[in-house]
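Sequence, please.
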């Protein structure tokens, strides 16, 4: 399995699904893996990058859900791996835990 080169998170500071539920554990995993965690707050000048990332690779709608998490691999390949669950913060928390437990972000030795 190819290892990610970066984690990208589209989020907003005011969103309880985002901070701290998604952003903090993924920043920590990126640190453990020795890769960057790039944050795109939709309420800042990063909104254009966030919109393009979601439009091209994520769960796009004009009023899209956040957070959305993407993994970047070698060669610029982007994989959408998580969208916050509108049914509740606890469901988003579980989705983040599941993401961190397996697949490309599962625990492994740091670089």
């Amino acid at each position: 399995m190819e290892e990610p080169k970066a984690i990208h998170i589209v989020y907003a500071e005011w969103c309880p699904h985002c901070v701290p539920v998604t952003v903090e554990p993924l920043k920590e995993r990126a640190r453990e893996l020795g890769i960057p965690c790039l944050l795109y707050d939709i309420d800042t000048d990063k909104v254009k990058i966030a919109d393009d990332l979601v439009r091209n690779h994520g769960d796009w709608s004009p009023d899209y859900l956040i957070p959305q998490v993407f993994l970047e691999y070698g060669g610029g390949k982007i994989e959408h791996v998580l969208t916050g669950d509108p049914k509740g913060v606890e469901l988003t928390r579980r989705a983040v835990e599941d993401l961190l437990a397996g697949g490309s972000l599962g625990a492994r030795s740091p670089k």
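The mean pLDDT is 94.
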